């Protein structure tokens, strides 16, 4: 069929539908400001039109409700304005944007000079951005004419060398008699090629030459002192709490301690002259040192007030990035860290070897010039301060040798699976090699090569494709095959993190909670606790803090994993409900239990001495304290998902290492009005050692606090032993570990030990339980909970100790875990898998353990004791498995091939071949098949190719469309959609792709099933210039007849010509609607920045038969577009096999007679047999029955 071409020039698509509010409360408010806050660039700056409908797809004008709308403010409906006490409907809105209007922004300021050498010439750059009034500019075509970057030459100052001022005179060289004193100075130069003139040291006579305007020189001639004058000072923390034990010194003599602060934070230093300006250095362990200036008056007194900030270990805020360069080029690798105090030393490493600072002349940034291929490898920086050290993530530098191509132009093999009914003659193969370009970056042509982040990334991508035709026997199938690759600008995928925040106890959503990244508030959770975050491409570690403004839940920092290849990772975030406050008397000693489980002793206690509470200004608080202490008890496995941070700490060497927890707690102290936050000093934390089942952990136990901005646990202090008498039994003595802490701010605290018995666990995820290598799933979140056994190392877990998550890549995932070499069940693990909010099933372990299904060979499998959660109870869910974490014995060959790998063998785990041992998860799905003429991997958005026949025309926004088909019949039926171009000149009549899906049984209704069938959405193609209304054909692959077509869908198609003919009842043909119609039409459309998420949401709505619901159980009576009657074919006669079974003797005798008769028939083959009149026009059967043969012989005999 052909259709007239309908070209819409200068008109953009409507946006997707937005529904951010619920009609509960005062009404339904779809405010444009709030929509922009949630969806940012997906709404243009100045919409030209707006459409409003209810979620039941009724236009706002037809509801009879009082509504308001404005292109500046959006749409709103107020409940109290509705007649007869009605409540507003649930509305959603969409906007239309004007044609693309691109323009340049103003030039930025000139950047710094590219060279830091003195008396040198470099380059300065400035930038501008191409802006557009449309949220999605034209793709693959420069929207603005001109260059993004402007450059000019710059020069650095001449080389100089100057002396610094002389230092103080040193001590006398002898204790009596004549001697010498020496003072020194330092040469400051900006180039090693020049030197200062003069001597760096200067001797002087024994007699001190210092001249004092007030007082006299001290004994070592280092400063002036005034007898009778006193320097008074006080030291407080940032929360106003007095700091005791702080060391006080003069800044020019920091090692000479003059005084220490007392319990009130006060100190005195005698002999400081009032007229002199004095710099005082104050420092204390776990605080950042500070230098302050003393003020004085003529009364003979000076004073100083210092505020100490808590010391924070360095934290990398800018990591070096992967780079690709040609031989002879140059590269800049950047690193930047923050902390308190700020890091002052940087070190760079190449493949683990420290680079010589004198040779490479680096500080924060590393510049490599005249690159050689041997300089390829991994580079990372290490920075340190007095508080500690940290290492950055490694960056891969690839140096391409001269004469070597940056991108291999020959495509690598890539097999595409054909439809089930497509068998290629001659080969009988169901696969076709379409080719693909290797997934690697290349050098490209950079406008400037010394940036921390290259202006544009270059990838090995498709340069040319050719259309080929695959012979499927009964039909032809087109495909676009890659013929040549080249180095091109990378497709920048949109990286998203999605999820839902709810309480760990009853799944109550965190509504309108604040979301922070660092100190910046970046969003708010929705009414159901859902959230979406867009992640910048340079993010290495994502720390998100969820804060409840109503203070029902504790503040919960989370470290999220995300997929850098693009797409969306779903996280089910759990938060702990804040405990109801209890009243404490601030003037008395108070004890609060940590962990109260029925029938169990508390894990520990908080002991708060009398008069320990204080206000923000440091004043002691007297009165009633509202104390809320929330404890995350590891004995309750349901709290594992609520673990804040990722249970890691930074070692003294700067490595991120794991912790094993024995409990976490959050403390919130308020005054009697429950408004002002109070601090507490001298708090003791007691840990009952009976709960530490691994005795080797007791000496290593420490107290930690969580930094909410970095997600890293920082050491608060050690524990000491103490023996007390139990309150329940006066004769029972128990041993406690006691740690001291000061509650200065609202942080989470942890009772943890570093654990060095570590391993990796190999896990893969698959599309189905066939576990094929070609059907591995990427982007699946695999989570592992480390469990601690009961005494005696039994496999029955008592408590969890750690929670980790990893995303599967093309070769699965390797999860860190604690393990033990001597006792196989010393540690156990509980492993789950989730993809887009859907739980995957684990390989079964019952009724019989099958190594070929589980993926692990014997006898190692028995040692690991693999059990799926339904192993003993079939009624339980099948979405997790439990194993013993037995560290592999490297001297036992059976244990050297996975799935457990030693911690030192991380690369062996990550690069393990497919046939190596591994654990398995799979999606529980019906048979389905997807074929794209232009191949695309939805798990890797960088494989997108710009072509008119691309199924997804836009790599930044993916629109999934589904139609719901009901099947009335006893069996489930495979349903196919054939998707062609309809109204676009470049695609009319050409195939986009094929989708097959088997219908799913409705368990509530007999002989009924339904299929949610994907089809190619109508809309703009990849050039964003014109709309194509796709031509869709729905064909059940069985003896089916269409009986019902949705009347609303039929009416819509008639009102929006052209209309596709629908003369055949065995199928259905339509030009796909441009509008997202909704469940009343049986059409389900979802737009998202990740194709898998868009499809998952659309399928959930289709199964549920609603426009905003979600279900994994098919409801075949709701939201139907098409209904087919598919009766089962009846057998007209018994087959030969059936007759042999029922009456073998008679059947064999009949076969012998037929063979004898057949010999006579073959002689008369040239005769023409006339069919009776009632059989004319029918196709004669190829089979000749014995009865027919006898009739033929009788007729021949009569003639």
Question: What this model shows, in words?
Answer:
Keywords: Cleavage on pair of basic residues, Disulfide bond, Extracellular matrix, Glycoprotein, Immunoglobulin domain, Secreted, Signal. This protein is mostly beta strands and 1199 residues long. Strand 76 and strand 77 (1027-1028) form a beta hairpin. The chain has eight domains: 13-97, no CATH class; 217-308, Immunoglobulin-like; 312-400, Immunoglobulins (Immunoglobulin-like), CATH 2.60.40.10; 415-489, no CATH class; 495-575, Sandwich (Immunoglobulin-like); 582-725 and 734-754, Sandwich (Chondroitinase Ac, Chain A, domain 3), CATH 2.60.220; 758-922, no CATH class; 928-1125, no CATH class. It is built from ten helices and 82 strands.
Task: Produce the secondary structure layout.
Layout: E1 27-31, H1 32-39, E2 49-54, E3 68-70, E4 74-78, E5 91-96, E6 102-104, E7 121-127, E8 130-132, E9 149-155, E10 161-163, E11 181-184, E12 187-189, E13 201-204, E14 216-217, E15 224-225, E16 230-237, E17 247-250, E18 259-260, E19 266-270, E20 279-283, E21 290-293, E22 295-296, E23 301-308, E24 312-318, E25 323-326, E26 331-333, E27 336-340, E28 345-350, E29 353-354, H2 357-360, E30 366-368, E31 377-385, E32 388-391, E33 395-400, E34 415-417, E35 431-433, E36 441-442, E37 458-471, E38 476-489, E39 495-503, E40 514-517, E41 520-524, E42 530-535, E43 542-547, E44 556-560, E45 567-575, E46 582-585, E47 590-594, E48 604-608, E49 613-614, E50 624-632, E51 648-650, E52 656-670, E53 679-688, E54 702-706, E55 713-718, E56 720-725, E57 733-743, E58 748-754, E59 758-766, E60 781-789, E61 797-807, E62 813-818, E63 828-835, E64 838-839, E65 841-842, H3 851-854, H4 860-864, E66 867-868, E67 880-884, E68 900-902, H5 906-910, E69 919-922, E70 928-932, E71 958-968, E72 974-980, E73 991-998, E74 1000-1001, E75 1008-1015, ...
Helix pairs in contact: 8-9, 9-10
């Amino acid at each position: 069929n052909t259709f007239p071409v309908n070209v819409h020039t200068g008109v953009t698509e409507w946006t997707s539908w937005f529904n951010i509010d619920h009609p509960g409360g005062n009404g339904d408010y779809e405010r444009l400001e709030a929509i922009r806050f949630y969806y940012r660039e997906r709404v243009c700056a100045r919409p030209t039109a707006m459409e409003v409908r209810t979620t039941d797809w009724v236009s706002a004008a037809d509801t009879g409700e009082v509504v308001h709308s404005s292109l500046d403010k959006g749409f709103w409906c107020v409940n109290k304005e509705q007649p007869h006490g009605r409540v507003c409907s649930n509305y959603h809105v969409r906007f239309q944007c004007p044609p693309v209007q691109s323009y340049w922004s103003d030039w930025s300021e000139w950047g710094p000079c590219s060279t830091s050498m003195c008396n040198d010439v470099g380059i300065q750059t400035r930038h501008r951005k191409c802006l557009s009034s449309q949220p999605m500019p034209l793709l693959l075509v420069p929207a603005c004419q001109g260059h993004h970057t402007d450059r000019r030459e710059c020069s650095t100052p001449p080389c100089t060398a100057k002396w610094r001022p002389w230092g103080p005179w040193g001590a006398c060289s002898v204790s009596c008699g004549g001697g010498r004193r020496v003072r020194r100075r330092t040469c400051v130069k900006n180039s090693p090629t020049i030197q200062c003139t003069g001597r760096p040291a200067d001797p002087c006579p024994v007699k001190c030459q210092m001249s004092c305007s007030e007082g006299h020189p001290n004994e070592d001639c280092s400063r002036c002192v005034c007898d009778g004058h006193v320097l008074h000072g006080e030291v407080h923390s940032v929360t106003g709490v007095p700091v005791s034990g702080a060391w006080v010194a003069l800044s020019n003599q920091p090692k000479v301690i003059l005084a220490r602060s007392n319990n009130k934070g006060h100190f005195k230093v005698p002999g400081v002259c009032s007229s002199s300006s004095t710099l005082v250095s104050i420092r204390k362990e776990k605080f950042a040192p500070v230098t302050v200036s003393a003020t004085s008056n003529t009364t003979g007194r000076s004073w100083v007030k210092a505020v100490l900030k808590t010391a924070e270990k360095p934290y990398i805020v800018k990591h070096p990035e992967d780079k690709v360069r040609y031989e002879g080029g140059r590269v800049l690798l950047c690193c930047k860290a923050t902390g308190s105090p700020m890091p002052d030393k940087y070190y760079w490493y190449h493949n683990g070897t420290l680079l010589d600072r004198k040779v490479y002349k680096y500080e924060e940034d590393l510049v490599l010039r005249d690159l050689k291929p041997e300089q390829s490898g991994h580079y990372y920086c290490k920075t340190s301060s007095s508080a500690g050290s940290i290492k950055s993530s490694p960056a891969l530098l690839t140096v391409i040798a001269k004469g070597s191509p940056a991108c291999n132009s020959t495509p690598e093999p890539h097999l595409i699976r054909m439809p089930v009914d497509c068998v290629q003659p001659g080969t009988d193969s169901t696969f076709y090699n379409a080719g693909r370009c290797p997934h690697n970056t290349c050098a490209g042509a950079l406008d400037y090569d010394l940036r921390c982040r290259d202006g544009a990334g270059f990838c090995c991508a498709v340069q040319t494709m050719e259309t080929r035709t695959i012979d499927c026997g009964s039909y032809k199938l087109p495909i676009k095959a890659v013929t040549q690759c080249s180095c091109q600008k990378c497709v920048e995928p949109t990286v998203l993190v999605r999820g839902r925040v709810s309480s760990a106890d009853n799944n109550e959503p965190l509504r309108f909670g604040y979301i922070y990244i660092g100190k910046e508030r970046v969003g708010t959770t929705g009414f159901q606790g859902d959230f979406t975050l867009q992640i910048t491409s340079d993010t290495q570690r994502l720390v998100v803090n969820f804060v409840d403004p109503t203070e029902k839940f504790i503040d919960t920092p989370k470290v999220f994993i995300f997929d850098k290849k693009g797409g969306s990772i779903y996280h089910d975030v759990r938060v702990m409900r804040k405990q109801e406050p209890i009243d404490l008397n601030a003037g008395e000693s108070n004890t609060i239990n940590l962990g109260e489980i029925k029938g169990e002793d508390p894990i520990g206690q908080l002991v708060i001495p009398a008069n320990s509470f204080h206000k923000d200004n440091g004043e002691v608080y007297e009165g009633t304290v509202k104390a809320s202490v929330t404890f995350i008890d590891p004995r309750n496995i349901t709290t594992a998902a609520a673990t804040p941070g990722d249970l890691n700490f930074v070692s003294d060497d700067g490595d991120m290492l794991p912790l094993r927890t024995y409990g976490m707690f959050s403390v919130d102290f308020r005054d009697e009005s429950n408004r002002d936050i109070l601090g507490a000093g001298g708090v003791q934390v007691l840990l009952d050692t009976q709960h530490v089942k691994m005795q080797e952990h007791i000496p290593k136990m420490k107290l930690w606090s969580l930094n909410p901005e970095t997600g890293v646990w920082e050491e608060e202090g050690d524990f000491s032993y103490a023996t007390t008498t139990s309150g329940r039994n006066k004769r029972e003595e128990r041993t406690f570990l006691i740690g001291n802490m000061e509650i200065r701010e609202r942080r989470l605290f942890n009772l943890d030990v570093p654990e060095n018995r570590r391993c990796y666990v190999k896990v893969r995820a698959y599309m189905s339980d066939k576990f094929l290598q070609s059907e591995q799933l990427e982007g699946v979140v695999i989570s592992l909970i480390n469990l601690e056994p009961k005494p005696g190392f039994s496999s029955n877990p008592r408590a969890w100790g750690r929670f980790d998550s990893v995303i599967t890549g093309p070769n699965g995932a390797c999860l860190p875990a604690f393990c033990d070499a001597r006792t196989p069940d010393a540690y156990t693990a509980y492993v789950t898998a989730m993809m887009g909010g859907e739980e995957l099933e684990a390989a079964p372990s019952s009724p019989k353990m099958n190594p070929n299904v589980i993926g692990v060979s014997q006898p190692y499998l028995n040692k690991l004791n693999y059990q799926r959660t339904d192993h003993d109870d079939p009624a339980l869910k099948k979405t997790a498995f439990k194993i013993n974490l037995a560290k592999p014995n490297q001297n036992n060959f059976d244990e050297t091939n996975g799935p457990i790998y030693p911690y030192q063998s991380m690369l062996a785990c990550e690069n393990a071949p497919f046939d190596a041992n591994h654990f398995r998860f799979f999606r529980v799905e019906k048979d389905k098949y997807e074929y794209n003429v232009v191949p695309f991997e939805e798990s890797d958005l960088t494989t997108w190719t710009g072509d008119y026949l691309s199924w997804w025309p836009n790599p930044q926004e993916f629109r999934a469309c589904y139609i719901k088909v009901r099947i009335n019949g006893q069996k489930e039926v495979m349903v196919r959609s054939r998707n062609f171009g309809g109204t676009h000149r470049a695609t009319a009549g050409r195939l986009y792709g094929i989708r097959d899906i088997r219908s799913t049984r409705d368990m509530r209704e007999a002989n009924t099933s339904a299929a949610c069938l994907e089809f190619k959405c109508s809309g703009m193609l990849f050039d964003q210039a014109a709309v194509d209304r796709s031509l869709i054909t729905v064909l059940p692959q069985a003896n089916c007849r269409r009986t019902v077509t949705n009347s609303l869908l039929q009416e819509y198609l008639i009102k929006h010509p052209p209309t596709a003919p629908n003369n055949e009842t065995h199928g259905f043909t339509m030009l796909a609607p441009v509008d997202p119609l909704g469940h009343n039409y049986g059409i389900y459309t979802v737009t998202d920045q990740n194709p898998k998420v868009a499809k998952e949401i659309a399928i959930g709505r289709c199964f549920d038969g609603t426009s905003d619901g979600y279900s994994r159980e098919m409801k075949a009576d709701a939201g139907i577009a098409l209904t087919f009657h598919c009766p089962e074919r009846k057998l007209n006669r018994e087959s030969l096999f059936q007759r042999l079974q029922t009456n073998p003797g008679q059947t064999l005798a009949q076969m012998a007679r037929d063979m004898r008769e057949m010999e006579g028939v073959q002689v008369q083959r040239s005769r023409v047999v006339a069919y009776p009149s009632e059989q004319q026009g029918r196709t004669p059967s190829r089979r000749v029955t014995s009865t027919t043969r006898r009739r033929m012989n009788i007729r021949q005999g009569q003639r």
